[in-house]
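Q: I'm writing up a methods section and want to include an example of the input and output format. Could you take the sequence below and give the corresponding predicted structure tokens, formatted cleanly so I can copy it straight into the document?
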Amino acid sequence: MKKHLFIFLVSILFLSCKAQETPTQFTQEALNFNFISSEGENIYFKNILEKHQGKTILIDVWASWCGDCLKGMPKVKALQESNSDVVFLFLSADRSLKSWKKGIEKYQVKGEHYFMAKGMKSDFSKSIDLDWIPRYLIIDPEGNIKLYKAIKADDSKLLKALN
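A: Here is the clean output for your methods example:
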């Protein structure tokens, strides 16, 4: 009986550790999420990623109302300067298209921009366990998630994933 209990407890421990592994691929829910491009066109996230296949991508989930996002923006701009071969995707959690576009212009954010309706409450946000912004992800040239979560643009894990 003790042996069976021990095996049972080890199995539960193993499965709970497995469930907490960092994702290396996006869920179908994330891939099929419909963003709005800066040109006003609808585009699925999978199509955004396909457009940059073979390149390293830094994803910055941000909003123009987010103080931490704005504090991190100079660090993101420095990353852009030192990583010209990296694609910078900015996914906005702004509350409206108007405030999103105004924020891009006001803070002179360079890169590709996409808006997600419902922001931090969107299905995309839920699919990546978004609990704070800014949120940075790194996608490698093969399309794998190399860094799933960083909340500072100078995080050592982020810098390591870029190099």
